[in-house]
Structure formats: structure tokens, C-alpha cells
Amino acid sequence: MYELAGVRVERTTEQDGDIIVEATATAAAGRCPACGQVSTLVHSRHVRELRDLPACGRPVRVRLALRRFFCRAPDCPRRTFAEQVPGATAPHRRATVRLEALLTTCCAMLGGEAGARLLGGIGVAVSGDTLLRLLERGEAAVGTPRVLGVDDWAWRRGKRYGSVLVDLAARRPVDLLPERTAAALEHWLKDHPGVEVIVRDRSTEYARGATAGAPDATQVLDRWHVLRNVREVAERVLERHGQDLRRLAVVGQDPGVPSRRRSAPEEARWAAVRRQAAAQHAEIQRLTAEGETISGIARRLSITRTMVRRYRFADAPPERDYARRASKLDPYDPYLRRRWAEGCRNALQLWREIRAQGYPGASRAVSRWVEVRRTVPAPSTPPCRRRAAGAAQGATATARRPSVPQLAWLLVRDPAGLDDAELRLLDQLRAICTAAATAYPLLQGLARMIREHTPTGLDEWLDTAVGCGVPDIASFAEGLRRERDELLAALTLPWSTGPVEGQITRLKLVKRQGYGRCSLATLKRRFLRAA
């Protein structure tokens, strides 16, 4: 049974595969859209054909009999007006209100072309351009949230950034700004007064914009961003003492088993890389001594500021020395060791055996496992390759040590979550590097306050960190002291920018659906309406 509010169905027929519904409006009078005057004086009658929601995958067309009324208000600019059915029709529209709502929702969720393909499958013939025009007819309402979360999003990574504003209480986006500047946030806050809490990262742009645009609002630092800054400070502390880190023992290897050996060409390439890094480190140190800024050095040497910052504060060129990552082969390592001790040297045979036990990987991983343990060529090796294999056995073995980011996480993570090997490495690091030993209790203290949301002892921590004698810790504590009230609010209030990060992830999906050709206005409409 076909139903549409405010109309009476007279009959239903079929024509060219479409369902034709003939109906009549049931209202006794009409209301002038200009002055609001109710009128019962009929001027004329007409039939208006509208498209409606499909039925069982078949298009539906409604032939609706409507009237035109006289408007008798003496000061009204309109003499006559067409009858409208509230909730069903709209002026100058060829579709019912509910069909337009479906089209707009599909466009907001999928975009123009993808939405048109989906709608075509359910019986609604529409083009992608029509869907985009429908999306442009109305703007999504932008309210004024009580708790506002702000973070940046990349229009083009490394080149152009904007700002996402999210109502943290309702967990809904409220606006999308084309810039991540203080002026853009300030203007938005002044145009939308009433924000009481602003949650942000430690960006100085957002700090200045929030202070100028809403001076009475409480600013809250995001705890995750502060914890990330703690880890970054730990990395800078370790990078300053690269010579000490080279004295760490190699971890993650079997006792008595060498690392993967590099061939002579590989070792030559790595030697060239090390020489280039040493030259860049010396040049950056020289320019720093002459008073050149980080940005100036980056422009002069055509490198990134991040690289300049790393080399500027390091006592030696940072090495690309990474620890072994987890492998799919790890669960089968005890079995492989036992078979190796029994004398099995055939990599394919070992692979077949563990594959029967459920190993999902390829044979190449097992071949590499065997390669680093083989001291003499396999019996099946051809004589021509036996000589090459023997030369490869004499190549330099690569000793892998934990990277600086991995060591930094050891200084920040909760000791209760570390295993025995990580605790031994942490003790070795603190014994070798004096700066790491000094920074460890300070980093742990701040990380514990962030994880447990306990502001007790914050002022004492700031005083101790400023005078600890480690430059990176001291400068970090000075910055936090300037943002003491915001940090205290982060440790006492429940708000964070977690919902903002989720909306940024959704924004990336919407942006990529436009293949990079979506304008900011269309992107904003889709982003806000889809929410």
C-alpha cells in the first residue's frame, strides 16, 4: 500500500516499467509562503508529477493534483500561490522531500558518481552532477559547542593544512577551516561565542588563536600529544649521546649465531652512506657554530628541518641501526633449532615440515634463517656457486642494535609492562648513558601523571626537571611551565582530542573518495552532513 503524508491515493497503474501513483492533496486550505495568510479561494488546478522513493527496485512517479490559491492580504506582494504538501513537496522541485533526503544522504556518504551507481541499482536514475547540486542546496547547521576540540588535517601532506573543529560533548564535527593558523581559529571563535572548554595539542598557533578568540574559555592540553612529546624528548636525549649507544650489546639474536652477512658491494654502499652522514653532520655543526638557524641550514643544504635538528644536537652522525622485528617464523623457531641440531640443513625440507604444522609464510624466510647459520655451502651447491658462497661467508656480519625510538620507548613505558630482556637492556642503557639515567625518573614521573590523571607533584616535577642538567629535559619543562594551567586541566578534566582524531580519519576517507578533485566547499558539506 502506497502512503504519502498529506495526500490521498486515487489509483495506481504501470507505465513503461514505472509505477504511476495518481493522488490528490487533502488539505482544505493553503498558506501563502510570503505572508503566511491562509486562503481557501481557489484560482486554478494543475497536476504536478514528482519522483518518489522506488518500490521493489522500480521507479515511482506521483501525479499529484494540486491547487493554486488567491492571496487576499492587502500588503502581500503575491497575488496567487501554488499549494504545497508539508513534508512531501517543495517549490520548484521534481522530487518528493523524502527522495531528496535519500539522494542528499547518499551523496554525502559516497560522493557523486559512487552515489549515482548505488541509487541506480535500487531504481533511482540520477547523475553524479545532480547529486552534487542537491548537496550544495543547503548548508549543514553549525552550532556552538560547549566543549570544542581542535586539531589539524592535511589537505596536502607537508604543503597545506586545515583545522577540524569537533563538538566533544556530542562527538560531532561542527566546522572545517581551510587553515591551521591562529587567525582562522580566532575568527571562528569570535563568530561563535559561548565555547567554554577548548581541547588542543601544544601548537602555538592554536594556543594564540584560542586565547585571542575565547579568552574566558578553559584550554586543555591533549594528554596523548603530551605523552608523545615526552617520547620525542627521550629521543633527543639519546641522539645527543650516540657514541654511548654504540656500546650497547646486540640484542634479539641467538647466542653464537651471526647476523645476516653483507656482501662486499653492500658494505661499500653502507660505507658511502656513513661517509655522507659524517660529512653532513660536520657541516651542520660548523653552520651551527657560526650562528645559523635550523631553517637557514635546511635551506642551505636542501634537507629537512627534522634532519637538521637531529644532526645538530647529536654528538655523532645517527646510525641506521634497527633491531630485528617480529616474524611469522618466530613460533616455529624452537622446532627449527632442534632440527638444525639434528643435522637437517635442507631449507626446503624444513619449510615443508613447519608448513605442515601451520606456518603460513613462504620458503624464502626459512632460507634466510638457514643462510645465517650455514658455515659451509650445502652439498647440493654447484661448484661455481660454492666459491661465491665461500666468499660470502667471509663478508662482514651486520650487528643490529636497538634504534633510538625503541630505546626512547624503554624510557617512557611503564616498567611493569617490560619483559626481562627489555629490563636488562634498560639497565644497560642507564649504566652506559648518564643523561639517560638522569632523564629516566623524570620521564617516568610525568608519564605516570599523564596515565593516571594525577596532578599531584606537578609543580615539584617542573622545578626538578628545569634544574636537572639535561638540556632537552630542561627546555621541555620550561615549555610545560608556560602551559601549566593547560596541563593541569588535562590531568583533571576528562576531555581529549581522541574524537577529533577519529573525525580526521573519516575526513581522509571522504577526501580520497574525491580523487583529490573535491573542492573545500564540497568536502565540508560532505564531511558535516555525513556526520
Concise synopsis of the structure shown:
Helix content is 48%, strand content 16%.
Walk me through what this model shows.
It is a single chain. This protein has 531 residues and is an alpha/beta fold. It folds into 5 domains: 7-94, no CATH class; 100-136; 147-218 and 496-530, Nucleotidyltransferase, domain 5 (2-Layer Sandwich), CATH 3.30.420.10; 224-249 and 402-492; 264-393, no CATH class. It has 22 helices and 12 strands. It has helices spanning 97-110, 112-121, 128-136, 182-191, 204-213, 223-239, 242-245, 264-289, 294-301, 305-313, 333-341, 347-356, 363-371, 383-393, 404-412, 420-432, 434-452, 458-466, 471-482, 484-492, 498-513, 520-530, and strands spanning 7-15, 18-25, 30-31, 38-39, 42-55, 58-70, 80-82, 147-156, 160-167, 172-177, 197-200, 218-221. Strands 1, 2, 5, 6 and 7 form a 5-stranded mixed beta sheet that branches. A 5-stranded mixed beta sheet has the order 10-9-8-11-12, with helices on both faces. Helix 1 (97-110) packs across helix 2 (112-121), helix 6 (223-239) crosses helix 15 and helix 12 crosses helix 13. The longest helix is centred in the middle third of the chain and has 26 residues, at 264-289. It is extended, with a radius of gyration of 34 Å. 26% of the residues are buried. Residues 251-258 and 391-399 have low confidence and may be disordered.
